[in-house]
Amino acid sequence: MFQFMTSTRIVFGEGAFESSLSLINQFGYSVLLVTGKNLNRCGPLLHHLKSQKLRYQHVAVSGEPNITMIEETATVGRRFKPDLVVAMGGGSVIDVGKALAAVIPNQGDVYDYVEVVGRNVPLKTKPLPFIAIPTTASTGSEVTRNAVLRSGQEQVKVSLRSPDMLADVAIVDPTLTYGMDPYRSGRGAMDAFTHLMEAYVCGMPNPLTDMICEEGLRRLSHSVLPACLEDDHKARADISFAAMLGGMASTNAKLGAAHGLASALGGKLDAPHSVITARLAPYVMAENIQAAMESQRTDVLERFTKVAQLLTGRVNAHREDAILWVNMMLEKLNIPELSQFGVCSTAFDVVAADALKSTSIKGNPLPLTKERLMAILGQVCQCQGECTEHSSVGEDARASIVFTSHDIEPSRLQKS
Q1: pTM, whole model, 2 decimals?
Q2: I need a surface site. Which of 126, 149, 166, 364 has the fewest CB within 10 A?
């Protein structure tokens, strides 16, 4: 028996963005709009809100989201009393929008609802209607039921999670990713890969997520380089689709040690989540293969072999070929080493212990001991150059928010 959940409505394809903006009008008059600082791609959305005389408050997000940011924004949002939340941007922006839609109607603070470091209390009130419009092909957050937030107190990343947090509408338009620089494109694509790979080899897959992961890995493997390095539009569409499939798969199966370690490292390093998961992936894959060989888990080994076949397009591919493919992509896409962010200065025993508490690691295909996780971190730390000195960075230094209200005067409403 298995369940499958995703966004209520998905609109995918070139031109989906502008052709679907009228859907906003179905959910109310007051809009909490969440975007990144760069509004270059948001023109049609802002024009729609103004032309329809919709009241909206704009929240501009900088950096990866944290619990303090959500608490402060929710306080302002409650005074604004939005009918819905629209988030347009990368995975961090969509996570902020998703979290605000969940927290604003509910009492208490964010720590009441987050996993691991909080009370993990179920949401008492249904979230506000939520529309997600990704401008990157990466996390697949537009179709997931959680928002990843940094906790500055414990220096880990945790999730605010509920089936009710799935977007009411996900508008996925690959044209919004056109022209994105190779670095952001590359790390996003490898984040999508890690979602697909871990969901496929995890300890709790199901037939539907297997189909989704296989299609996602197949599309991503032949599109990642032309999409990220050449801005090929057909390849961009494939990567957007693969990223969305990765979000669907991770929501309905499980993830693994790469995301478990990333949740622990993400609170301690000032590094993008996508870079952390991408750089951890080959070492976690190798450790899982070794553990499967030691315990004679042929089912796990067969899944890694299938991953290798999907990535290389060769029916005779060996499971280690998947690791070679990942390392080749990391090099071609110039994904930075974690040494550049000070990983070697972190306490590996603390990171491993925090990772074992994470929700993600519970999906790993085999239990990995603290010692094995520390060994993975040790391999990541065998860098070519000198490791950057690591220092703790507070939440407020990592991220910021800016509020702007756009209220329509009552007299204008009466005339319209």
Answers
A1: 0.92
A2: 126
